[in-house]
Every structure is written in structure tokens, then in C-alpha cells.
Design brief:
Layout (H helix, E strand, L loop, with lengths): L2 H4 L5 H4 L5 E7 L5 E3 L11 E6 L7 H6 L6
Parallel strand pairs: 1-3
Antiparallel strand pairs: 1-2
Length: 71
Amino acid sequence: MIVAELSAVRCRWCNDDLEHCHDSLVMHAIGGSHCISPTCVVPDEAHHMTVRCDEVGCTCTLVTTGVAETA
């Protein structure tokens, strides 16, 4: 559900009819990124919010520092 469609206040990108995503873009320490919305198809720069992967529980930063556990 996109909150901007349900409220009287819309974001600037909605008002300008620009393609964008209201969900967060997760930036990984090992490179790459992904949106938390599984159906998102917009480019990285079309996201309202960007977060580091460790802020959402990703452990790829452990791989880059060499402290990842081995199974």
C-alpha cells in the first residue's frame, strides 16, 4: 500500500507524476542494492529513502571485514 495515495498530503514526486518508490533502498557493503519492495522496478535514484544494509540486519559487512562465521 502506498500511503501517499491515501492521504491528502502527497510527496513532490507524486505531485509531479514522476516514477518513484516510497519504500527503502538497501545499500550493501559488498556492493549492490535492492529495494525492500519485491515488486519495485524503478532505478536506485528514484527511492525516497536509502539505508545501509547493517541497519536492516544484513551481515554482508562481516564478509568484507573477514569475520564471517564459516559453517
